[in-house]
Design goal:
The structure is a homodimer of 352-residue chains. With 352 residues, chain A is an alpha+beta fold. The first copy, chain A, contains twelve helices and ten strands. Chain A has a five-stranded antiparallel beta sheet, sandwiched between helices. The N terminus of chain A is likely disordered. Chain A binds a DNA duplex (30 and 30 nucleotides) through helix 3.
DNA sequence: GATTAGCACTCGATTGAGTTGAGTGCTAAC
DNA sequence: GTTAGCACTCAACTCAATCGAGTGCTAATC
């Protein structure tokens, strides 16, 4: 969690260059990188010996470390953090419009999101994560009870953004059309236009009182409706490309890969990621977040990095998109692809 | 695909005993099993040399083979087939009621199925697979169009078994309540009680004619409704415990594990399994099927076995449950657990 | 004072020879 | 038909030797 922003002051320009060179190289190869490599890689003409000294300093400062004595260096979480922060503060990278990264419009939001996850995973070779938007701030737009069978009603609820919820309600005894009509009227006059979170227990009790006489059945129906409204717990999280994790030996070998993939099957764990991302975004930070290793709540994920972003579908519905990969993920590409996808989502849904 | 039922005649009693011993042992250990082991394992008092001769015969007949000269034997697909067929024909095994294998009733079918998959995977240590039931033979029970906004209608469709479908329909110009009422009447009188597959193109054109005057808008609305009805393509397949595949070294080492897990993300591939299972069940075969290795269509699965069963939810809605594991899966346990789960599903849904 | 060349040293990874042991096939005796 | 016995096979393991990328340190150079 401790995202201490490294003060640039700590590092002179040369160290920065070397650090970045180390990281870039490691991102590409996945192998510890040695002084000789850097000596050639960078434009600053320095011998490996000099680089060695500088690297030694960088290690002391905690930006890089050696997996074992006498091997090259690899970045620490702090190193990655520095790199990522630097990246983000750079001029907004131009979004490369990839021709194969195009969401086809689909009828259902669900389909669009699944598709987005698939595209993201296929394009980055990491694992993609997309949550359905939360709707509890959205306003109720339409509510209707209909008799489907003698002893069951169907409640249909439409929320701003055209999210539709259904619930079959079993009634102890048959309700006549007239009562249903009145009930519909009652519910609509009182609830329409309210946001889902405003429809709370107090309001429900009030409604029941208004309903008057028939209390028993009616009150149970009202309860059922309330429950259906509240059931925005149906937050879904789609993943795609889980097995992409296998592409990265550093995760594969240590057996972490299995843990990670298991985490993708675990909704609670995923919710953690999604919700922290949403929260941070609420807190007014930049639209994309990067969590590196231990910065993440989930223990199985401590060998990963996650790039998240919050999308918003016009009507204030907000959800999270994420990319999970090894720490040495190609952050630029990940963020670029993400950005491009977000733009498309915006495009598709803004006009409503 | 070639499920040649081994004629028992081919094998004398002793060979059968030895074969079964080999298989049982291999199922447990996962290691090739040698003659000495069998010599002790079985009740028939025979020296390892004799066993050796018999095993040599069994190999010639294609029931077992050696991964390399001078190692124990492991079963071939044919061997497993023999074993499984034998198992199935034995007296119906008593279903062990496991206390930790109990589905909690839930409101939505979806939740129940997801739960079933989870339980199945957790109990067997294999990967579970559950498809939502197909509904195209089910009858339309309720259909309603409502105006939600000036230029959009909501179609709500309820099918036998209380499957609910929704679709927002955008209308070019506003429709007045009266027209909607008539349209509802028209649709209901003509479609109610028909099975989804009976509602075909011909019927739709007929409807459009009946609708008369307003053709343009109305016909597009009718089309949209038809589309919503036909959209029973929303066959979902839930998986659980995908990573259980990693428990089995023979799959892990060869790198097949990744392919298999990838297959679990691929809906088309899963549909193959589900649909062949449904088809076979339709063909009146026993309620549970076992596919071993190459008997399966999916190439990535050729190192697995799959146990499938078809569940039926009272109203004729049928779906598939499956267990995917290594060929050396504990078939008895898998089938037992499956059976127990099916009974529960029956229990939960029969009373309607 | 910063940079560099040079050198001894470290340590994981790779190689290959040698050993072990489970298991087989075959033959001859029971 | 069954069994004991023996030679043979072959994957798996062990262990030492070697390799090589990379370091840290020192002394010379700019």
């Amino acid at each position: 969690m401790a995202k201490e922003k490294a003060q640039i002051a700590e590092l002179d320009e040369r160290k920065v260059k070397i650090l970045i060179a180390v990281i870039r190289n490691y991102l590409e190869t996945g192998e510890p990188v040695g002084s000789r490599t850097i000596s050639k890689y960078t434009d600053l003409k320095l011998s490996s010996a000099t680089i060695r000294n500088e690297m030694s300093d960088l290690e002391e400062m905690g930006y890089i470390f050696q997996p074992h004595t006498s091997s090259g260096r690899i970045p620490t979480d702090k190193g990655y953090r520095f790199y990522v922060d630097n990246l983000m503060s750079e001029k907004e990278r131009e979004i490369q419009e990839k021709e194969d990264l195009i969401i086809e419009k689909a009828d259902k939001l669900e389909e669009v999101l699944k598709q987005a996850a698939k595209l993201l995973a296929a394009n980055t070779n990491y694992t993609a994560l997309v949550s359905t938007p939360e709707t509890h701030r959205n306003k109720l737009k339409f509510l209707q009870l209909s008799k489907v069978e003698k002893d069951s009603l169907l409640a249909v609820i439409v929320v701003e953004g055209n999210i539709i919820k259904n619930k079959m309600i079993h009634t102890e005894e048959e309700m006549d059309e007239d009562t249903i009509l009145k009930l519909n009227l009652l519910l609509n006059t009182h609830l329409n236009g309210l946001s889902l979170e405003e429809i709370n227990l107090g309001l429900i009790t009030l409604l029941k009182e208004r309903a008057g006489i028939h209390t028993e059945i009616i009150s149970s129906v009202i309860d059922a409706v309330a429950e259906a409204i509240r059931a925005d717990e149906d937050l879904e999280i789609y993943t795609s490309g889980a097995t992409n994790i296998f592409r990265y030996p550093e995760l594969m070998d240590s057996g972490k890969a299995t843990d990670i993939i298991n985490t993708f099957e675990n909704k609670e764990e995923l919710e953690k990621i999604v919700s922290t991302s949403l929260a941070e975004n609420n807190a007014g930070k930049s639209e994309m977040q990067v969590y590196i290793g231990k910065e993440m709540a989930s223990p199985a994920m401590q060998d990963c990095s996650v790039v998240t972003a919050t999308y918003e579908l016009g009507d204030g519905m907000r959800g999270t998109i994420g990319i999970v990969g090894p720490k040495r993920m190609d952050y630029e590409k990940a963020m670029g692809t993400m950005k491009s996808l977000m733009n498309q989502l915006d495009e598709i849904y803004k006009k409503k």
